[in-house]
Amino acid sequence: MSATSPFGRTVCAMVTPFTPEGALDLDGAQRLADRLVGEGRCDGLVLSGTTGESPTTSDEEKTALVAAVAEAVGGRARITAGVGSSDTRHTVALARAAQRAGAHGVLVVTPYYSRPPQEDVAAHFTAVADAVDVPVMLYDIPGRTGTRIEPDTMLALAEHPRIAGVKDCAYDLLGSSKVIARTDLLYFSGSEELNLPLRAVGGHGYVSTVANVAGPLLADALDAHDRGDTAEATALHQRVLPLVELMMASSLPGTVTAKALLNALGLTAGPVRPPLRPADEARTSALLAAYRSAVPA
User: Fold this and answer.
1) DSSP of the chain, one letter per residue?
2) What is the pLDDT of residue 92?
3) Which of 62, 112, 113, 167 is catalytic?
4) What does pTM read for this prediction?
5) Are 163 and 148 in contact (CB under 8 A)?
6) Could you confirm whether 167 is annotated as catalytic?
7) Considering the chain, what percentage of its residues have pLDDT values greater than 70?
8) What distances in angstroms separate CA 94 from CA 76, 97, 100, 194, 221, one per listed residue?
9) Is residue 139 flagged as an active site residue?
10) Among 42, 108, 277, 282, which residue's CB has the most CB atoms within a 10 Å radius?
11) If DSSP states are collapsed to H, E and C, what string results for 263-278?
């Protein structure tokens, strides 16, 4: 576990396992979390994020998931609970429930669909941070929410004592570099192809969907960079890129591709919930081939 981060450093955006009938699989979640933290080399887990199918899990399921995973691995990894919604009051309630259930931190996405102005975005995050006693990670993903957390807004939010990190999916290295240089916010790449570039300009780590299946490879690349072996870091980064592209830049969401691979490997995942649909046999075969090329047997 990272001693310098309230969220970890090599963090997996964990899928939410379901039974074949589509119910929440808490035993499966504990087994998967144990595997990710152990052989997967993840020192942090994000639960109920985009990859965790938060739009289709109930509040009660989200809280139960946090409690189960915290029981399984909370002493070995940092547990960050996704609590974002488009409703500030609902987000505050989810954040408080996650803290009571054992989360070490909360991940809060920009309110979506309503597209609030920047001062309202800042007020939303401040309300959540004021309501809990655990660190808050902001989730900047304008491609999904429709609203950016602008760099100047980040600079203002960084003054809050509990706003400690950012999951960065904004694809704006200049803006991110500006905030990193002027604040103590811990920046986490939310886009695997940017893990090394963001680290090179002062980012802290990553929150990765691909880590559900290839955590050690991603961690090795970051470790190589940190010890100054940039050639090895680049080689590892390039080796995983075909898998990253198939999992994250194809026509399927990362949740679907991650579960397809986990299931194909005989690991805990289960189905996705509608409106998502499972990957077909051809896509699953391609994912498995890319995985086997990237990850040593």
Assistant:
1) --TT-SS-SEEEE----B-TTS-B-HHHHHHHHHHHHTTT--SEEEESSTTTTGGGS-HHHHHHHHHHHHHHHTTTSEEEEE---S-HHHHHHHHHHHHHHT-SEEEEEPP-SS---HHHHHHHHHHHHHH-SS-EEEEE-HHHHS----HHHHHHHTTSTTEEEEEE-S--HHHHHHHHHHS-PEEEESSGGGHHHHHHTT--EEEESTHHHHHHHHHHHHHHHHTT-HHHHHHHHHHHHHHHHHHHSSSS-HHHHHHHHHHHTT-S--PPPTTS----HHHHHHHHHHHHHHS--
2) 98
3) 167
4) 0.96
5) no
6) yes
7) 99
8) 24, 5, 10, 30, 34
9) yes
10) 42
11) HHCCCCCCCCCCCCCC
Mean pLDDT of all residues in 81-109: 97
Please check the confidence at residue 164 and state whether its pLDDT lies above 70. Answer: yes
User: Is 209 assigned to a binding site?
Assistant: no
Q: Please indicate if the annotation marks 207 as binding a ligand.
A: yes
